[in-house]
Amino acid sequence: MKNVGIFNQKNVLVLGMAKSGYAASQLLKKLGAIVTVNDRTPFEQNEIAQKLKNEGFNVVCGEHPLSLLENELYCIVKNPGIPYSNPLLIEAEKRNIPIYTEIELAYLISEAPFIGITGSNGKTTTTTLALNMLEQGNKQPLVAGNIGTVACEVAEKATSNNIIVTELSSFQLMGIDEFKPKISLVTNIFEAHLDYHGTKEEYVKAKANIFKNQSEDDFAIVNFDDENVMAMVKHSKATIIPFSSTKVVEEGAYVKEGSIYFKQQKVIEVEKIVLPGKHNLENILAAVAIAKLLDVDHAAIEQVLTTFTGVEHRLQYVTEIKQRKFYNDSKATNILATQKAISSFQKPVILIAGGLDRGNDFDDLIPYFNNVKNMITYGQTRDKLIDSAKKAGMKAVKSVDNVEDAVKEAFAHSEVGDIILLSPACASWDQFKTFEERGNKFIQAVHKLK
Q: Of 101, 103, 104, 95, nearest to 71 (Cα)?
């Protein structure tokens, strides 16, 4: 760990607990900061706050009082999920107090370079693929961010022999100042998280921060088939490495004559790859680009691609019951992800969808309903999804209260050979804390059918 002196004896406010807030507090204390931790959950119900209090931290719970800004703050380190519309953050910006997320702290102390992976969809699969390829190629990678351990905890232990692979959200990227990945990657851009960012333009602006500090000695891997991504990267100073599943881009990763190539070198035949779906081919191309930029040999890449079957909650095969196959795609928290999930199957699909209402409709799903024979909806968006299904002429549509009931209903209306797919097209927060919890509930409900 680099010994960063900029926080020594400086007042720092950590806003929001959870894993990232706890890790940031611990790190800042080691760096000599005078740390105040603030969380909205009352102290009596807040185990992390109680633990930090016992460790000597100044802890304020129950609200976000503006009086916290009176301590000549050097900066605020906030939980990525707390929106900038929070009154305390609005006032902090008026006072020109810097607001970071813990990924910035991780970068400042890290001896290891970073790979930063972002996008609307495919981040987790691409991150996992890249990590596996680097491990197979003996590059000593460490994983952090939205998957794996909190980034600043990983950065504390990393050496210059490691490389830190991070999956980054738009929320995290809004809170960077100096963060500069050696390799950045944007999988795709789709309208998402408008409840947080307000507009698509603000969402794209946050994502584009991944390029902000890169120089010509760094690399930006970008989806050549995505107009939004290519527009984002126009102002980047990094060396651009495109990937495409539809065009030959000889300076990057692409498909030609049934094989994946990187910079005109054949890497692997597509038919050897076990991970299904066109969208996953894009994720694979992106991961291959990372691996080849770091000199991973073809054999190591092939070993991963001939054995990797996917990540949890992303088109995860669950089981087969009476010749009906069940797939858990709970990580599909937006429309684009569900479009890609549906498109991955040739057999008839019974779609289970619904969740948090972020204000959008679901008509963009209509062109993808051709092989959806039935849809079971639940949650805040269930009526909106039914409206879109009816516009598509789908006759078999039913609304239920929750995921468990949806599984029972889907099975009751299924036939031999059907695919029963949970791909919600919505965030999970109306009924669940996380998409993982939602996916696990789906899996439990499926196994109860047995």
A: 95
